[in-house]
């Protein structure tokens, strides 16, 4: 190896000097530098716009300067806060579902306690229903419950069909974003199979908002049904549920109506989720775990009294000579 | 655009109402978002019908674009076609060794698309992607003037270009450009056969 290297170097030494024409490799530069200025004057200077300018990183004074250059007025301050008056923003005095509803026995202690509480609340519910009847004379619980179930089914169907206009008629403005949450670009297949128990009114409340006459009514209906749900992502891959598996669903749905409004309708307002609901099943979609946050390690250096703060990722820390560690 | 307005609001108005900003026509004049291509990104909105469990899962894809890059579309074309049919990791590795200005934009676009795929399009592994489409188009052209002899003048075109990329989940095809590369053994065999097939003139 060494021998061959020496011989090669030797050959280099012996190589005869060939006089070659110097070749130019930079082709963008003129070969006569003398008239560079005059050549530049041939082109009129144009200020090119920067379409991908990052306005977020500019300082406010810089933005002001730029707006002045272009003669643009700053956007009008929009201080008004829009709010909607035909639906309330929440559930007042929400219904507390008895523990283990649909399966647990009546003899458990919590269940007994809740039964007593329920009796107290029942009188309030009766009062509220009487109030509702004062506005809506033909209000009948049996009739209402059927109508509520119909609304419930139609609201879910319009969500599955992505029919936003129809959904608005079955759902209040408060529930609308909650309904539509996470449904963007997904295919939902929902089917109502049967009602296991007839739906019933479990709770009713009325409140006035702003003025005495402006009254909202909220009625909680218990649904025990059998449903099918399958959610697919944009590419038609299953994300949640199944199209062949039916599940028993116990739900407490709050319906709301603006009673003072002559044209008010009973719409889905909220869903009461009890504390004892079983945990949600994990998503079928798997993801890799995000990398751990870089730990902040304080390095005590001997030379200086101040502690040097160095951020190290696990890989960096594993290496013997990490650049963050300042040592001589 | 939005980030700019947000910034402006924070600095000048101290308002917490950031989402319901009134965007007037004068604000739109600030950055021209109306003349950038939109149709390519619309592929990201397409919803495909659900598949049965026995079907092969449809590969996820993500479309991404970089608009109005200050670079010639003719030059960008070479880089766009170079990267086509590569895996994402390979493309990024190769592009970091291309000594051209356009390679930086293409690399950025691919990295952005990769991040989008993982964040928004249900792609689990970010390396399991390949460059299925990659092309460059003409963008905005600013016209300048230059002087010529005898009081004439010429036009200078300051060209901008758009770059589009679509990353698809899975492995790239073995021979994307259909070049049919042969192994040395195959080459030798072909050559031998060709040689033996020769006709020797004036022989039997």
Automatic annotation (TrEMBL), chain A:
UniProt subcellular location: Mitochondrion
InterPro entries named among the record's database cross-references: mtLSU_mL45, NTF2-like_dom_sf, Tim44-like_dom
Alphabetical keyword list: Mitochondrion, Ribonucleoprotein, Ribosomal protein, Transit peptide
Every Tim44-like domain range: 125-273
Pfam families associated with the record: Tim44 (PF04280)
Location (main, coarse): mitochondrion
Cellular-component GO terms for this entry: mitochondrion; ribonucleoprotein complex; ribosome
Family: Belongs to the mitochondrion-specific ribosomal protein mL45 family.
PANTHER family xref list: 39S RIBOSOMAL PROTEIN L45, MITOCHONDRIAL (PTHR28554), LARGE RIBOSOMAL SUBUNIT PROTEIN ML45 (PTHR28554:SF1)
Name this protein carries in UniProt: Large ribosomal subunit protein mL45
Source organism: Spodoptera frugiperda (Fall armyworm)
Gene (UniProt): LOC118277918
TrEMBL record, chain B:
InterPro entries reported in the protein's UniProt record: Ribosomal_uL22, Ribosomal_uL22_bac/org-type, Ribosomal_uL22_sf
Location in or out of the cell: Mitochondrion
Gene Ontology, cellular component aspect: mitochondrial large ribosomal subunit
Coiled-coil ranges (or none): none
Source superkingdom: Eukaryota
GO molecular function: structural constituent of ribosome
GO biological process terms on file: translation
Family: Belongs to the universal ribosomal protein uL22 family.
Subunit structure, interactors included: Component of the mitochondrial ribosome large subunit (39S) which comprises a 16S rRNA and about 50 distinct proteins.
Protein's UniProt name: Large ribosomal subunit protein uL22m
Organism of provenance: Spodoptera frugiperda
